[in-house]
Amino acid sequence: MLEKLDLTKSLSKTEYKEKMAELEPRLGKLQRECRELGIPVMIAFEGYGASGKGVQISELIKALDPRGFEVYAVKNESEEERMHPFLWRFWTKMPPKGRIAIYDSSWYRKVLIDRFDKKTKKGELADAYRSICSFEEQLAADGMAVIKIFLAIDKKEQKKRFKRLLESDETAWRVSEGDRKRNKEFEKYQAVNEEMLTRTDTEYAPWNIVEAVDRRFATAKIYAIVVQTLAEKVEEARKRNKKKEEAKRAEGSAADAKEEKAKVWMGVEKESILGKADLSLTYTKEEYKKRLEKLQKKMEKLHGELYRRRIPVVLGFEGWDAGGKGGAIKRLTERMDPRGYVVHPTASPNDIEKAHHYLWRFWTDMPKAGHVTIFDRTWYGRVMVERIEGFCSKQEWQRAYKEINAMERDLTDAGAIVLKFWMQIDKDEQARRFKARQENPEKQWKITDEDWRNREKWDQYENAVNEMLIRTSTPGAPWIVVEGNCKYYARIKVLETVINAIEERIRD
User: Fold this and answer.
1) What's the CATH fold of domain 272-507?
2) Which of 6, 20, 117, 238 has its C-alpha lying 20 to 30 A from 384's C-alpha?
3) How far apart are CA 235 and CA 428, in angstroms?
4) Is domain 2-244 given the CATH code 3.90.79.10 in the classification?
């Protein structure tokens, strides 16, 4: 592919001016339209050393409103970044709706320079490619314009440019030992790039290869690529918005609710998972206290071991309102070092969070190596409350299962222990707890009108939960249904499950 490129392509100064006179104002207009329509844009520049990424980014932003974009230079991972999954630093640098993020080198570093330098091991390569493709697919499906540009030059041109840079003290620093090595072994590094382009050229995020020997030709081609892609995204967004309005008028919320209530996923009855929970399981207060003391001491010791071995832990808690999430989390963390864990209570997304992909706010809170993050409510809201209350489209929650599995796979590939708990109680027990909260002045804040309204949709939620448990419980990130009518039993089961998972990892 790359060796067959015609790198002699060029533009005269006159041709360049004519093209740019048309392209620059169009790009500025499209940036404004993307902002109005809430279209986020990610533009990734890759290519050989000295191929002109910095120069071309500088040319591209001339037509843009500087208040609407941000440029990221992606170099070696920082210590903080190394302690997270490799895509974490790009999730945290994701543009909100209506803004543009431009990357001078990108998430492809993992399979290019890091691979060439043997920082990425052979066994990690397949997972890295899978993660990258999943990352781009999720973003594109959510409306992100993902534009990937590869700047191509040949070995001779690269060597000439390096020589020119090295002749001046002001620019010599830009040529690293790694750059020289990759030029010396140009054919080998070219093969690495060929493989990357082939394995990640997709319909939702295609590669655009730019012949970059002639600067003017490269600039005009990059502008044309960005203009065309954004114009298509704007048109798609307008059609999608029109379709949504038509669908909103045509469909009634009552009909949607009826459909969800009657739904049985792939013939699986609602009792298939939750109905099997034995809610009669219990401990006496004395049994509970004895077990709790022993388990908390063990958890205290294991927490230190997690830090020493740099093992991250992600724990997600879901369940019925008044299901006992808070009590279980409190007993789990009571003897843990507060410097090594954090509990995130997940509320409805705020305006900033709504302006990003729904997984963004969870990615930003994922633990670094050796730390524990506990989510009280999680990313599974997408396939429960957002699904049932109509806060996302049917297409959005249906594809969320795959997206969530991919995120959790990224976490486990990076060495994290991932456990997800569903706190199960029956409807009568929930009513009893609701009433007890209402009658206790110190706990009245825990009960809201929304809690009572959610009870009316119990069957819909039960169907959604069963589907969620079936489709997202994996060997690496399993769901644990916690029998919770007896709070003592539930708290002990959570502690035992977490301890067993940590001990199993340490034995490995």
Assistant:
1) Rossmann fold (3.40.50)
2) 238
3) 52
4) no
